[in-house]
Amino acid sequence: MKLTLVAALALGVTLAGISLAQTQVAPETHPVGDIPDSQAFVRYASAAGHYSLEVPEGWARSVKGTDVSFTSKLGGVAVLSSKASAAPTVGSVKAREVPLLGKTIKDMKVVALKDVKLPAGPAVLVKFTSTGAVNAVTGRATRQENDLYVLAKNGTQVMLRFSAPLGADNVDAWKRMADSFQWK
C-alpha cells in the first residue's frame, strides 16, 4: 500500500528514521482586548478631517463627518476632531476636556496627565480608567484603560483615544498608532 505524504503525516509514520508525526503547538494566548504583536495595520485617511493614521486591519469602522472610530471585541480607537483656538496644554485639557469627558464616560478616573511629543507635534496625554459599555450577553461591564492624546494644528484639535480592558497589553500597538498620526 502506498501512502501519500499527507496520509503518512496523519498516521505518524516514520520513514527512514525520520518521524513525520505532527506535534501540537500551544495556541498563542492574549489577555482579553490585547492587540497581538502579529496584528497587521493599514493606513486610514480622513479627507474631511485632514489627518491619517495606522489602524488595526479588519477592525469595524464607523465614520461621522471628521470623526472616526474603529472597534474589535473590547478594544477601540477613536479620533474626534473639533475647532481649536490654541494648542492644548496640560492646564487647558485638565480644565476643559477632562470635565467634558467625565460627563459622558462612566467612572472616569485620571491616572496621568502630561505633555508628550508625537511625530505630528506636541500633545497632551491623558491616561485614565473607566467602566466600559454593558455587554448585552453577560450583562456585565469591564473596567477599561484609556490613553487620550490631544493635539492641534492650524485651528483644528484632535482627540485620539485608545481603549481596552484593564490589563490588556497594548502599549506597543497604541504607541504605533499614536506615532503614525499625520496631519494632511
Instruction: Report strand order across the widest sheet.
Output: 5-6-7-11-10-9-8
Q: How many helices does DSSP assign?
A: 3
Largest sheet, described in full?
Answer: 7 strands, antiparallel
CATH superfamily: Mog1/PsbP, alpha/beta/alpha sandwich
What layout of secondary structure does this protein have?
Elements: H1 5-11, E1 14-15, E2 18-19, E3 41-46, E4 51-56, E5 60-64, E6 67-72, E7 75-83, H2 90-104, E8 109-118, E9 121-134, E10 141-153, E11 156-165, H3 171-180, E12 182-183
Antiparallel strand pairs: 1-2, 3-4, 4-12, 5-6, 6-7, 7-11, 8-9, 9-10, 10-11
Keywords: Signal
Protein name: PsbP C-terminal domain-containing protein
Describe it.
It is a single chain. The protein has 184 residues and is α+β, with helices and mostly antiparallel strands. The chain is 17% helix and 46% strand. Strand 10 and strand 11 (156-165) form a beta hairpin. The longest helix is centred in the middle third of the chain and has 15 residues, at 90-104. The model is unreliable at 1-20 (pLDDT under 50). Keywords: Signal. This is PsbP C-terminal domain-containing protein.
Give me a quick take on this structure.
With 184 residues, this protein is an alpha+beta fold.
What keywords describe this structure?
184 residues; alpha+beta; Protein Transport Mog1p, Chain A; seven-stranded antiparallel sheet; three-stranded antiparallel sheet; disordered N terminus; PsbP C-terminal domain-containing protein; signal
